[in-house]
Amino acid sequence: MAIVSSLSTKHLLGIKYIQKDDIETIFRTADNFKEVLSRPVKKVPSLRDVTIANLFFENSTRTKMSFELAEKRLSADVINFSASSSSVKKGETLLDTVNNILSMKVDMIVMRHPAPGTPFYLSQNIDASIINAGDGTHEHPTQALLDAYSIREKHGEVKDKKIVIVGDIKHSRVALSNIFCLKKLGAQVAVCGPATLIPKHIESLGVQVFYNLKKALEWCDIANVLRIQLERQDIKFIPSLREYAMYYGVNRDILESLSKKITIMHPGPINRGVEISSDVADSEQSIILDQVENGVAIRMAVLYLLAGQVS
Hints:
- The protein has helices spanning 20-37, 62-73, 94-102, 118-123, 141-155, 173-184, 213-219, 241-248, 252-256, 278-281, 288-307, and strands at residues 51-56, 77-82, 108-113, 129-135, 162-166, 188-192, 208-210, 222-225, 263-265.
- By secondary structure, it is of the alpha/beta class.
- It folds into 2 domains: 15-140 and 292-307, Aspartate/ornithine carbamoyltransferase (Rossmann fold, 3-Layer(aba) Sandwich), CATH 3.40.50.1370; 141-288, Aspartate/ornithine carbamoyltransferase (Rossmann fold, 3-Layer(aba) Sandwich).
- A 5-stranded parallel sheet has the order 7-6-5-8-9, with helices on both faces. Strands 2-1-3-4 form a 4-stranded parallel sheet.
- α1 (20-37) packs across α11, α2 crosses α11 and α5 crosses α11 (288-307).
- It is globular and about 55 Å long.
């Protein structure tokens, strides 16, 4: 079957660079793949002639496994690249490494890299389609897509929903991609956290800022809770994790004090007892495991649609 892409772009570099119509096309395609994933045989031959390289220059568990499973569900040929055992450690440039991989007739690249803008740089220098699986503190587009898709699945639509993103906004690529995605879909978006973890001028993105967790949770319909990204912090932004948990940890007591029930989300990995307590993460209000499940369908949809531009 010929694969025809309906996206307006050859790459998925960030939510900032795609249209609302692209997001809705991805969601409709993911709906079809969710149905496939519910079958006894969860594999389709859609990308049988496509070779995909997963290039991860940072540690990853959920995202890497989700992409690899999505690729295999679509019957693609998969190559996994580990930076720790590659020639990059010997001084080879990134572009040389990628061109060597492409010379083996690789059609698409899924890339995670600690330097913001790396997928965009590569897209200017190679012919293969690139999917950004996270670039530093910049963007993580497929996470934002699966988060918005999970909200749509739970609440029927994203438009006009009030969503607060709680936690380390300053260092989070998930937060930025979510803001772009949710705003394009017509949601009301706010962020909440200590002042040291809220970027200056973030209001220019059209979001509201809360510094009080209780007020933020009273305002919202959905709370997407992020972890403190200590690995990206070169100085201390909070006195201690214990104090952070006291003032910004989402726990059962604060949820029960609200005047309504809200939906709880988390992109993972979870630091239980810090940004979220176990009795909240595992509660009926949580859709965290739904997010994980939806991640495979969303990534299948992105891979399938971009593969339509593979020549």
